[in-house]
Specification:
Distance between the termini: 45 Å
Number of strands: 2
Radius of gyration: 16 Å
CATH class: Alpha Beta
Mean pLDDT: 91
CATH topology: Alpha-Beta Plaits
Length: 103
């Protein structure tokens, strides 16, 4: 992230984050900042159907302004990775075993 473009990026991303929950395939998102590097962010999006995201959601009009601005606001290309949840815990819920463990 170019520090001079931080505010612009956050405004554009805020619009995307506001729009995503209206999508039927959307589950949740979490946006993080590295406290040691205020221009280093991590966005985690969870969707019900990966193929739907790749084929349709990433091309939605509410993302267009952000995607168009990325070459101007980022120091380097963003890293995109696909992760599968193995365990998720919440206060007040019983502990869950890691997915895929035998026994």
């Amino acid at each position: 992230m170019k520090s001079t473009e931080r505010e612009r990026f956050l405004v554009l991303l805020d619009g995307v984050l506001d729009a995503m929950p209206e999508e039927p395939n959307f589950t949740e998102s979490t946006f993080h900042v590295d406290p040691a590097m205020q221009d280093h962010f991590f966005l985690r999006e969870t969707w019900a159907d990966h193929d739907e995201v790749v084929q349709n959601e990433l091309r939605k009009s509410y993302r267009a302004s952000l995607h168009a601005a990325l070459p101007e606001v980022l120091e380097r290309e963003s890293e995109i990775a696909i992760w599968t949840t193995l365990r998720s815990d919440e206060r007040g819920c019983p502990p869950r075993k890691l997915k895929g463990l035998s026994g």
